[in-house]
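Hi U.,

Before I forget, here's the chain from the pilot set. I'm dumping it here mostly so it's searchable later in email.
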Amino acid sequence: MKKNIITRREAVGAGIVAATGIVLGKSGSASAAGGKKESKVTMPKNADFYDKDGKFLEDKAQQAYYDMFKRFGYPNPKTQQDLMWVLDFGLGDFVHAGMAGVFWWNSQKYGYFGHSIYLLPGQQIPEHKHMPTEKGPAKMEAWHVHHGMVYTLGEGPETKPMPVKLPKSQEKFRTVKNAAPLMPGEVRELNRLQAFHFMIAGPEGAIVTEYGTFHDNDGLRFANPNVKM
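Structure:
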């Protein structure tokens, strides 16, 4: 994956963990490098998002993102609440393989797309790629981090050691192992059309804008055949 624009200087100095972009303040709490100190992060648990029969509780999941918005000081107007969807991809492992988002605009006629991606701490979007369909060409996209941080994983030499703990539930479906951090204010694009890729949030979660060409769900191909949309 290629980074086109970097608007934030590499953080240096005592108390900075370069691999994760997390700064430890005097109190020892974590905050996004280069940004304001955030409140304490509570790591989510799967038990919080499923009932005794294993049914995914979308309202509980949605509230977890609202709580993250509040922690980041991110606006949450009713329009966003009305349009926002949450997914566990039918895998029953929401805290490791899940996401929320809003498709703000998706124009087949003019071929452009605007998407907000919301990830809880340590949450991964399952590995996937975009193929051409009858409605349009293979989707191309770039990601712009606003709050928190993510690691993008894509084609290229395997990153060793891996700077982020990847979910075991997705391990046998992982084909790309080149990891790079993406910090607030930074933008990176997919390295090529039809390439497998995914992202995983850092320890505070993440709010990301995706800029892309027209998105057609029929063109989605997941590395994990068990994924359900």
